[in-house]
User: Fold these one by one.
Assistant:
Number 1:
Amino acid sequence: MTAVKNNTTQPQVLVCVVGARPNFMKMAPIMRALQNVKHLITPYLVHTGQHYDQAMKDTFFQQLGIPKPDMDLGVGSGTHAVQTANIMLKFEPVLDDVNPFAVLVVGDVNSTVACGLVAVKKQIPLIHVEAGLRSYDREMPEEINRILTDQLSDLLLTTERDAASNLLKEGISEDRICFAGNVMIDSLLNNCNQASSLRDTLDNYACTQTVSENNYALLTLHRPSNVDDQATLARLIKIISELSQKLPVIFPVHPRTQQKISQAGLLAELSEQRVVLLPPVSYLEMLGLMRSAKLVLTDSGGLQEETTALGVPCITLRENTERPITVTEGTNTIVGTDPVKIMQCVDEVLTSGGKSGRVPEYWDGLAAQRIVAEIIHRYLPGN
């Protein structure tokens, strides 16, 4: 780790990278915290364009208060190899032009590992926010991204204390690890008061079905393991249809999931039930839908964390999770895609309220402040 030699009063540049929707919620509070130390650090925000829906990207940046990116690489879609390679090719000249003292990446998307690799090859310290999370499922592309980014990183900022043990087992020295807390929860707490109401969201999408607060299930589904295999997808759609007889289901459908459901000929089965199909919704709309739901069914890592913070029962449609604290301390239950387990868990929520859990340590809205303080301590000593 190299401290920055700052013999002038000029602030030093920190390149901050976002690439896909989950990154926006993690970067927003960091950008706000950096504004409080702009005499020391000038953030340079790079959007790789991995999330290539321009309208959705603009909505997220606006709602979360993220400034317009200093650079948009516009890489768009592609295979993992194509996307990662294009990000690397376009990111390298940015570092040559900006000459930052460090590069900060968040999460586990392709942009995270691609920009991290470029930075380290150019001898620029890499800072990883949300380090040390492990599902131990190498079939998940995100797991590969997490492992590689952590090995590359100079400073590893964790969301839960147990993440450090994962890193230590992988040979990462303790002095590179810092428990800072969960920036996703910073964003959630900062935006709760602005969250859209259930009625406003349904009206916004011209939904005519009758759905009332605390009397519906919220569903998200996007993992390849769930939507790419037709047998698995058909099994999940069938159980969701059955579940909708107990209470309505609101289902904001990821574009890729929509395509897979249509290709499998399963759309009619959902449309005939009490399932409210919505297009991808904004951050504030999703926050409102989560907050007023009876329960959430998801294969998203971020929603596991957010439901724990909100105290809403979460049923995770995966065989594992990289966020075990949401199970041991929070409201999350892992059920996989077994219809019996799913319905048993739903019935438990309906009869007893489900897991109540508690909010984990440092999920308090102050993680970004701790992150910025640690960066200054390590890289800008004397300030």
Note: The chain has a mean pLDDT of 93.
Number 2:
Amino acid sequence: MIVTGITSMKSTAPALSARARAKVNLTLRVRGRRVDGFHDLESVVAFADCADRLTLTPGANLSLVASGPRAQECGAVADNLVLKAARLLGERVAHLKTGVFALDKHLPVAAGIGGGSADAAAALRLLADANGIALSDPALMEAARLTGADVPVCVRSEACVMTGVGEVLQPLGLPAMPAVLVNPRIAVATKDVFAALGLRNGELHAGASDGIEAIAWPETGASIGDWLAMLSGGSNDLEAPAIRIQPVIGEVLARLRATGARLSRMSGSGATCFAIFGDEADALRAAQTIRRDHPQWWVHAGTLS
């Protein structure tokens, strides 16, 4: 267990709890790098049924306790995105009620599935609940954006098309899709992957004019097959540079593709990869086989939606 700045004041207010679901980039185009150094992205984002859990016990002082099987991977708790998000919201909302956050950490870190961003977004949801703030409140969304590019999409944790630097969100009626997530337990720094992509400030990425904003995505209620037909035409522009940095990502993808999955791809900047299957039984069999052959890897069988 890691603890920082715990207040001794006891609160009579009930604790609030939220799940911080893993984010999965089903597609990820890098349209270019802006003059300010940020990258313009286009991504179809889904959320998995694996998650961290965050609890807020109202109190006088803002602090964080981290526990769980991945707590030691979080680094210095004082630098955790949960506290960063809370502080940024506190700068924008007068007399913000905070307290002690308790993070039960299960998702791998630096893994391309937005674990830290999902935790920060969960913190903002809990603070919104405790303070009567709407999730659409401009102050809350600004705090989310300043915390990190993946935090706004994680606030609602709903499937969408994410564009800009992560702040423009278009909801999608994605069905629940059986899937397997695999991480080889190798951390990959997002900044290193973008550096390997090699775009200069103000430079467009090759093929950036072929955007996804105008795509007519399947309507709510469409089949998994309809969605896979659309998603298969996409890609992850960070996959190749991430594999150059960590070749094991290519091994993970090859292993997933050997299971007969209908779609396999890397999520975010890696190293987590996903595979989508036609039914839950196929996903479970694939996960069991991969766990047996690679017991050191993190493997999750579940659904994306």
Note: DSSP finds nine helices and eleven strands in the chain.
